[in-house]
Design a protein that fits this description.
By secondary structure, the chain is an alpha+beta fold. It contains 16 helices and 21 strands. Strands 1, 8, 9, 10, 11, 12, 13, 18 and 19 form a 9-stranded mixed beta sheet that branches. A 4-stranded antiparallel beta sheet has the order 4-5-7-6, with helices on one face. A two-stranded antiparallel sheet has the order 2-3. Strand 8 and strand 9 form a beta hairpin. The longest helix is centred in the last third of the chain and has 18 residues, at 480-497. The two termini are 17 Å apart. The model is unreliable at 5-10 and 21-39 (pLDDT under 50).
């Protein structure tokens, strides 16, 4: 293990897309200010387009906030660098699951302490996780089936109302960061069922971290700059950089800055064509963690075209999946199933979908509705370096080769989200990401009863029974190994029977100056672990 972990360690589409549309400030390069001595006075510079509202673990859910909060607050467990296959100890030195997959017991490390020197106790953990749940923010849905208790000062018991072997993975996320409950209460923190109205801690946490992580807050300006300093009382391995400066910088300036070969600097938002032409000595790490998916309405009353089984399969066969992936540059991967290759449960590359125009043309003729035009709604933004309009146009062009008629319908992001939530959109396209790094989190959303399925008019009555049964196998799996096998079976059935067509996967990428070590992209939910970064 390295860095922080050596001593211990489907996001809603609105949050995912926010990174592409938030207003940003172009800054002149401050490449690695005061850097180079690998000591407590050295500075790491992080260039990123800010998507952050709060540094409160109970409220954080945006990309920039997740990176920062992960550096401020330890969690019960974490991941070792870019390896997200299994949670490893953090505040908890060990954890165990009950045979029924519903109860998880975490034993706290006796050395763990907050920045003020006080020990981390089970009461702090219960307060923090109860507060997360009862604040009812974006992340609260991930812990809605969980309850928390302390059997003694160093033992935390987490109980799930449903079988869920991924509870430790959920509790590794930044929003599960543990606060010093004594200080939190002194400044307005509340964890009861009325926390939504009673808690007044949030604003305080933008200037004062109450965690046990390797960094503390020096300053927070949501529009331009966030500065962290090393926690002198950190109980684990000390971070290499004494100071970390997050600069709010658009992608054009990120590329310009990194092209100047800075020292002690990383960029978090370069993707697609933006990665081309960078100096070869810069380091790039990535992993395909986002999937791009078409959604077809399954109710004939809404759309007699997209609900037509033959039309849907004609479109599926018409798409040039390799060509779609190529639009993302070297980071694009043609889709096999739904689960991106960053996560356990992804189908092998050998099963990547392939274009079959002869099949598509035959199915289109068989459908009886190929002469009707359907609109494809998509958000009119550039996301991860790619204009989503170019992907929509590729789908339109491929479909036309099989005789299918698609009209492009770009919309501002707010309008796009409102329309999709209304459940009346016949045909739409968007990027998607996981709520936490377990592909099982996708199932509940996409199957009947979930948000995506409901918006697509896909009910249990319309669903293939075998596909529903496979989804239940994923949900009922008592361990992650069985869950991975069930996920693969489920995806193969979804390809045949579900109102979704997954086009490609795209990779998140961290670009780092050549003097750094440990600057690895992770699909864990916090992009990069700042405390793991050092110099060579």
């Amino acid at each position: 293990m390295t860095g922080r972990s050596s001593h211990r360690a489907l996001r809603p589409m609105a949050a995912l897309i926010a990174a592409a549309v938030v207003g940003v400030v172009g800054l002149s390069a401050c490449s690695g200010e005061d850097s180079g001595d690998n000591g407590t006075n050295s500075t790491l510079t992080v260039d990123t387009s800010f998507v952050v509202k709060s540094l409160d673990p109970g409220a954080v859910y945006e990309p920039t906030g997740n990176v920062v909060v992960h550096a401020l607050y330890d969690t019960l467990v974490t991941f070792d660098g870019a390896d997200i296959s299994k949670p490893v100890p953090a505040l908890a030195s060990a954890y165990a699951a009950s045979p029924d997959g519903r109860t998880f017991t975490f034993t706290l490390n006796p050395d763990a302490k907050f920045a003020d020197g006080s020990p981390v106790t089970a009461a702090d953990v219960v307060f923090s996780l109860d507060r997360l749940k009862n604040l009812k923010g974006s992340a609260a849905a991930i812990v809605k089936d969980l309850s928390f208790s302390a059997s003694d000062d160093k033992t935390v018991v987490v109980t799930s109302t449903v079988v869920n072997p991924n509870v430790p993975t959920i509790l590794a996320a930044p929003y599960a960061g543990i606060l010093n409950s004594k200080l939190a209460k002194e400044h307005g923190g509340q964890a009861g069922t009325d926390a939504t109205s009673a808690d007044s801690l949030g604003t305080y946490l933008n200037e004062n971290a109450l965690g046990s992580g390797p960094y503390k807050i020096e300053s927070f300006d949501v529009a331009s700059r966030i500065v962290l300093t090393a926690n002198p009382n950190y109980w684990g391995k000390k971070p290499a950089f004494g100071r970390v400066v997050f600069q709010n910088m658009d992608v054009q300036n990120q590329k310009l800055t990194m092209s100047k070969k800075p020292t002690s600097e990383i960029a978090l938002d370069l993707a697609g064509d933006q990665l081309s032409g960078l100096p070869t000595e810069l380091q790039q790490t990535s992993s395909p963690s986002t999937y791009y998916q078409l959604r077809l309405h399954a109710d004939p009353a809404i759309s007699p075209v997209t609900s037509n089984h033959d039309w849907a399969h004609a479109l599926q066969a018409a798409i040039d999946y390799q060509g779609v992936a190529a639009l993302f540059g070297s980071s694009g991967v043609p889709a096999a199933g739904i689960v991106p290759t960053a996560y356990a449960g992804a189908l092998p590359d050998s099963e990547a979908q392939k274009q079959d125009l002869a099949k598509a043309t035959a199915l289109a003729a068989q459908s009886g509705v190929a002469d009707q035009t359907v609109k494809l709604l998509y958000p009119a933004i550039t996301f991860s370096g790619v204009d989503l309009g170019t992907i929509a146009a590729k789908v339109q062009s491929d479909a036309a080769k099989a005789g299918l008629k698609i009209e492009l319908d770009p919309a501002p992001i707010a309008s796009f989200l409102d329309q999709r939530r209304g459940g009346k959109v016949a045909f739409s396209f968007s990027p998607q990401s996981l709520d936490y790094p377990s592909a099982a989190s996708i199932v509940a959303d996409l199957m009947p009863g979930g948000g995506a399925a409901t918006a697509a008019g896909w009910t249990t009555a319309k669903a293939d029974p075998a596909t529903v049964a496979a989804a239940n196998e994923v949900r009922d799996a008592l361990d992650t190994e069985k869950q991975v096998a069930a996920l693969q079976k489920w995806q193969r059935l979804m390809i045949e029977h579900a109102p979704y067509i997954t086009l490609a996967y795209n990779a998140g990428t961290v670009v780092a100056s050549s003097d750094l070590s440990g600057a690895q992209y992770t699909a864990a939910g916090w992009t990069v672990d700042i405390a793991d970064i050092g110099t060579k």
